[in-house]
Amino acid sequence: MAIAIRPATSEDLDPAQRLVERGILDLRARHGVGLPLALGPPDFQRPCLEEDPSGLWVGEAEGTVRGFGFSWMCERFWFLAQLFVEPGEQGSGLGRTLLSRTMEQARRRGAENLALITFAYNRVSTGLYIRHGMFPREPIYLMAAPAGAVGLPEPAPDLDAVPAESSWMRQIDEAVLGFGRDRHHAMLLAGGETALGFARGGRIVGYAYVSTITGHVGPAAILPGEDVAGVLRRALRVALSGGAKSASIFVPGRCGPGLSAMTEAGLRIEEPFVLLAARPFGIWDNYVPADPGYM
């Protein structure tokens, strides 16, 4: 069966998202990871496609999407958000071809660094990324718990939650990640996500996105030298204030205060991931990704 590689269109995004779901479930099943999966609609992919379609590609055969590659860029930073092929197509070379097409975006726009987050147990894909110059840099752990199992201390009285503002979210991103994400924040906020800022003594020290529907926290960024654990505990408290049935967060291995705070709150490691990059970047003691695709 011949597979044609072509740029993705808006009509491809929903079937591509279903392909991603099948790919994740198949990968988890083969590695004995029995976690449920509930991916939402492609609300992040759609504006990225409108902004720069060179980062989204599909492999198609007989009118069916058989593979999907999706990358985005902020300034000179390139990130591979999704690369999945239909279960049963592994080893066909489709993944390598889609990766090469998405990496054309990085070359065309002069990327200075390349990165992605993938499942730590996905050895085949990790080898593929290493061959393309991206190397394991940071473990990241998905932590979760039923809401009823979460226990949080009273928040520090001097740590205030305030509405987030894009101007200082950019300043925090530049300090923690090394680049701004103005457009991505606009996408999240336009999609109904809730962003909070955290201030101590009137000074903004960080921000966090929280979902009172799902109980998820992230992305979150806290300035160096500030109370990472306190911000994450406060954000988790807000996320659970709307009656969510569970809590979840991605915490980097380097973020000791965050891992300790979430463990003490009752969250447990559900799944291991790994950040790969062409060269080190960011202060991972102070950043919590939203998920592997958004970072």
From TrEMBL:
Domain of life the protein comes from: Bacteria
Pfam families named among the record's database cross-references: Acetyltransf_1 (PF00583)
Domain N-acetyltransferase: 3-157
Name of the protein in question: GNAT family N-acetyltransferase
